[in-house]
Specification:
Elements: H1 2-15, H2 18-45, H3 48-76, H4 78-101, H5 106-118, H6 123-137, H7 142-173, H8 176-196, H9 211-221, H10 227-258, H11 265-282, H12 292-307, H13 316-344, H14 350-379, H15 381-401, H16 434-437
Helix pairs in contact: 1-7, 2-3, 2-4, 2-7, 2-8, 3-4, 3-5, 3-14, 4-5, 4-8, 6-7, 6-14, 7-8, 7-11, 7-13, 10-11, 10-13, 10-14, 10-15, 11-13, 12-13, 12-15, 13-14, 14-15
Length: 453
């Protein structure tokens, strides 16, 4: 326990205590906008079909344009990309609220929803990229990198629990427009704060090719052939994880409605998220010798085993028990998948790769929600839950058949554009690294930590 606390202290020393808080608050609008848009449009238009279309275009915009924003962040740096995206997203979200309240038709509302999704500022994937960059610059070991992924995964999980909960609370005591209006304010304030945080300079972008880049490209060229299979397998696994999320949402909603307690659906799903977040945070205690391949297989196996009881659940309290236990398998899989992404992709393309991974999750969830919702209408809650079990089985198959690198293949500094001939500083040395000489990264204190907080 003490060792785990110390590891997370090292992570906070790298980022500064303010960055995780700001990034968490900037993530909330992502979790609020999807659910909030559906509730708002359904209430103002009186049409669930229109609400579903608007929610679908919002998800589609995020899936399609998320990787584009990630690529722009890799090329031009996080600060200008997040500033622009946050501004557009805040305006688009406010326009969606105004349009819904003003009685706009389905087509213009769907168009605004698409812009809202396309401009989501990707705080989760970009925060992972930034924290990883800070860890690599400080020469952090694998235990600290693992804790970075665990902390970021936990922040994601908590945001996706509190986001819908805030929407539901606002809709209950006031109106769904209040929730979406709050999301617009949050992304404007905290998205901007995240972009302007001094650590943004560590992800300053790689606009041109340098001599160091050529060497890195030459070193990675030989093993690039083996990487796409891993990358695509991880993205497929995340899409299947998203499918589990969507299927569980549909199944939980169907079963609670069948039992006459539809208001319990959100609470059941939140319980799953809370357990998932707690287990994700505890994952930082695992020693580095427990490799990512083993973690991936264990997490997907647990997801399959723990999801099967959903097929035989027909009462409220057993549903709570089964779903809560199942949540323990979710965060380990998500954290491991993003850690695998960070291990195998080129550092200069990490933001884009993280965005693609997140888009895979969203795409899987949206598609499964539509399919499992229809199955729930035809065959009852078990029809929806069968999609979750099937997705878990396919994810386990991917984990078993995919060859995973047993160790990191690069030892050079994290961002190619920030390298010169000088090596990256080792943790605890406090010596200036090449990024500082180039003016690309914030200063480090005597422990390799960010000193500008």
């Amino acid at each position: 326990m003490v060792g785990t606390v110390n590891t997370y202290r090292r992570v906070i020393a790298l980022t500064g205590p303010l960055l995780p808080l700001v990034s968490f608050l900037a993530r909330l609008p992502v979790a609020m906008s999807q659910f909030g848009s559906v509730l708002l449009v359904a209430q103002t238009s009186g049409s669930l079909a229109t609400a579903g279309i608007v929610g679908g275009t919002l998800s589609a915009g995020q899936v399609v344009f998320g990787p584009v924003l990630g690529r722009l962040a890799d090329r031009h740096g996080q600060r200008p990309v997040v500033l622009g995206a946050a501004a557009v997203n805040a305006v688009a979200t406010a326009a969606l609220v105004a349009g819904a309240l003003g009685g706009l038709g389905t087509v213009p509302l769907a168009a605004i929803g698409a812009v809202t999704g396309a401009s989501v500022p990707l705080i989760g994937p970009l925060a992972r990229t930034r924290s990883v960059a800070l860890a690599h610059r400080a020469g952090a070991d694998e235990s600290v990198l693992g804790a970075v992924h665990s902390l970021e995964g936990t922040l994601d999980e908590v945001s996706f629990v509190f986001g819908p909960a805030l929407v539901g609370l606002a809709a209950l005591v006031a109106h769904p427009a209040v929730a979406l209006g709050g999301a617009a304010g949050l992304v404007a304030v905290f998205g901007t704060a995240y972009a302007l945080h001094p650590t943004a300079t560590v992800t300053g972008g790689t606009p041109g090719r340098t001599v160091g880049d050529r060497g890195a490209r030459a070193r990675t060229k030989g093993d690039r052939a083996g990487r796409p299979r891993v990358v695509h397998a991880v993205r497929g696994s995340l899409a299947l994880q998203g499918a589990m999320f969507g299927a569980c949402q549909a199944g939980i909603a169907a079963l609670t409605a069948q039992l006459g307690v539809p208001g319990q659906a959100g609470i059941v799903y939140a319980a799953m998220g809370v357990v998932s977040a707690a287990v994700g945070l505890a994952l930082g205690a695992l020693p580095a010798r427990v490799g990512l391949r083993l973690r991936w297989r264990a997490a997907t196996c647990a997801a399959l085993v723990l999801s099967v009881p959903l097929l035989f659940t027909g009462a409220l309290w057993p549903l709570y028990a089964v779903v809560t236990v199942l949540g323990a398998a979710y965060a380990p899989h998500l954290i491991t998948a993003f850690a695998l992404t960070e291990r195998v992709v080129e550092p200069a393309r990490l933001a884009e790769s993280m965005a693609l991974a997140a888009s895979s999750l969203v795409a899987g969830q949206a598609l499964a929600l539509a399919v499992s919702g229809r199955l729930a209408e035809w065959y009852g809650p078990a029809g929806a839950f069968s999609v979750a079990v099937g997705a878990a089985g396919l994810a386990l198959t991917l984990a078993l058949v995919t060859r995973v690198p047993s160790a990191r293949t690069r030892a050079e500094a994290f961002l190619p554009a920030q390298r010169t001939a000088s090596p990256a500083p080792a943790a605890g040395t406090g010596e200036p690294g090449d990024g500082e000489e180039a003016g690309k990264a914030p200063a480090a204190d005597g422990n390799g930590a960010y000193a500008g907080r």
